[in-house]
Predict the 3D structure of the following.
Amino acid sequence: MSSNTAKSCLLLAGLGGFFVMVGRLVGGPSGMILGLGFGLMTVRWSYWFSAKLAIKSAHAIEVTAEQFPEYHQIMADLSQRAGIPMPRLYVAPNPQPNAFATGRNPKHAAVCINEGIISALTWEELSGVLAHELAHVKNRDILTGSIAAAIGTAISFVANMAMFFGGGETTKTVQTQWRPASSKWL
């Protein structure tokens, strides 16, 4: 098992454990079962659909060889030299120069470049960026990064739900009890 595969498994287990712990805090032993169910659904979703989420959040569209022949030619050459299948290619309508790779493995990978990087670099320069992204695919960094993003999303979700169901009373209590240390501020 590769190092990145082990990291991905550990992150997925941690994500599942996080929801079991939250379930325990919220609902006791029966909450743990609910947390386990929610954690398993989240882990499954993180593994199978994280690439689709990344592509959708970038508002990227898949491009053909007719639309971007240089992009396809560079990626076909780099993929062949790396000994991996060519990933699906996307372009995002963002002026920020950026590129990213996503997916669960080399067979289900995608590479996305923003319009900003297309206008900022030549195709020769862009081939270096694309080689970097393809290295993420080959080394399976893309799944680890996708799962880490899913963990961040899950933690944000739980925090937002806690604020929603908590009614913000903790914040109100802290604000009404706080007094400045010095009277010069009064």
Remarks:
- DSSP finds six helices and four strands in the chain.
- Residues 11 and 147 are 7 Å apart (CA to CA).
